[in-house]
Specification:
The chain has 2 helices and 22 strands. This is MORN repeat variant.
Length: 282
């Protein structure tokens, strides 16, 4: 009888130990800071080609000229969509095209424009293929009968020349993009001949605007963050120079909105070279 009781107690203790270990694993899995190891989307193999390859750009233009079929843009069949909204006494129209083509989203591009068919709106973040489709082809926005914005999309990214006008059709701004990247972006190289990018700073209207990247010489991501109206916003992340996987080194929290008064950036979390959490601000 005593032996049976001891055996039962041992089994209970073992069961409790297993459950505790399972609970710790679940808590660790739910904790986004438990490991500094991140998805390999920022490994060197996906280094952005950007718009610096003139040969590739010319070849694309040739293909675009050859395609004259209705609703086919950049070699893709599209569908026309129109959104009408009325606010006070003004009516706004957005005319654009969407593609059903499945396209891998470039992780380096900040703004990916897509049509949310459920809410009948255009969004530029958090693309959800189950809710809608990427914009692809010409786009115009008009208020009443006056065009105030026009340009082209390439699989959800602004592409080519984008123009904005006032309510009297006077040109206000002219920007040039290449698959989501502003043409005026500043790039520094370790070796331009080998296309080894050191830093990539997006520029719009002479201000830093968009996702910033700094790379190690081997192409591994070193720093990533976002600028808005020339100001650092959100989380900026530093990474360890690891050849096999991407591991966060430090995250610095900046203001969520530009020009926020009395906000002081702070270190939110830090990890060692193995990806183990060593510090986190409560």
């Amino acid at each position: 009888m005593i032996r049976k009781l001891i055996l039962v107690l041992i089994l209970v203790q073992l069961s409790q130990a297993v459950q505790a270990q399972k609970k710790r694993k679940e808590e660790k899995a739910e904790d986004p800071d438990s490991s500094g190891v991140v998805n390999d989307i920022l490994m060197p193999t996906s280094l952005p080609l950007l718009f610096f390859d003139e040969t590739e750009r010319k070849e694309k233009k040739k293909k675009e000229k050859k395609s004259k079929k209705k609703n086919i843009y950049y070699g893709q069949k599209t569908k026309r969509v129109r959104i009408k909204t009325t606010f006070r006494s003004q009516t706004q129209f957005q005319n654009f095209f969407i593609t059903h083509e499945k396209k891998v989203i470039d992780p380096y591009i900040r703004d990916i424009f897509w049509y949310d068919k459920k809410d009948d709106v255009i969004r530029n973040r958090d693309f959800d293929p189950s809710r809608g489709y990427l914009l692809h082809g010409p786009y115009t926005k008009s208020i009443d009968e006056t065009v105030v914005e026009e340009g082209n999309y390439y699989f959800g990214t602004r592409h080519g020349i984008w123009l904005t006008f006032d309510n009297k059709s006077v040109l206000q701004n002219k920007l040039h993009f290449y698959e989501g990247w502003p043409k005026d972006s500043r790039v520094s190289y370790y070796s331009k001949a080998d296309n080894k990018i050191e830093t990539l700073t997006p520029i719009e209207y002479d201000l830093k605007e968009g996702n910033f990247f700094h790379f190690y010489e081997d192409g591994q991501i070193a720093v990533s963050g976002e600028y808005h109206y020339g100001e650092r916003v959100g989380l900026w992340t530093e990474y360890w120079d690891n050849k096999n996987k991407v591991i966060r080194k430090r995250e610095i929290q900046y203001q969520e909105q530009p020009f926020t008064k009395n906000f002081r950036p702070f270190i939110r979390a830090e990890w060692d070279k193995e990806g183990n959490l060593v510090y986190r601000k409560d």
